[in-house]
Amino acid sequence: RLEEFLKKEVDLELSTLPDFEERVIDVSEVEQLMNSINAIPAPCAPMINPQAPNAATGTSLRVCWGLFSDDTVECYQLCYKPVSNERHSDEQAEHTLKVKETYCTITDLLPNTQYEFWVSALNASGISPPSERAVYVTAPSPPTIKNKKIRSCENAALVCWESRDVNPVDSYTVEL
């Protein structure tokens, strides 16, 4: 029977044209719902830690921070600037670093200088609000001993030095 059917010529022309309605289907609500299911929320603001002991040298600072929640974070944006009483100073320029960890060591800083730091967390959904700002201080540069003013006797020694720091130093430790 199949052989007989295939030998016949079949007229595939339709007698009437199909009447299709043009319908525009709005899938924006479904798309939004699907995106909200797969999307992760933007992270919460990180918490910057206060300066730890021994976290500074004359030219570097180690800054640490953390998160309160289990947010998904791709990287952090660490911002800092020197603290100055002058309002419009070239040294007031803000610096921004992208960091993968929850800590960073910043180098090439000025000795005995205060720096203000804040950090934000980033993921695919966006950026968090910035953390509170924290002030860190670099260590003072070592003083210069005035060799020509050194005096000594059997039971005493007089040693004079001068500081190269712009900001005043709180105290000095002399080791013998």
From TrEMBL:
Protein name: FSD2 protein
PROSITE patterns, per database record: FN3
Lineage of producing organism: Eukaryota, Metazoa, Chordata, Craniata, Vertebrata
One Pfam family in the UniProt entry: fn3
Domain Fibronectin type-III: 46-142
Lineage top rank: taxon: Eukaryota
Alphabetized InterPro entries for the sequence: E3_ligase_FN3/SPRY, FN3_dom, FN3_sf, Ig-like_fold
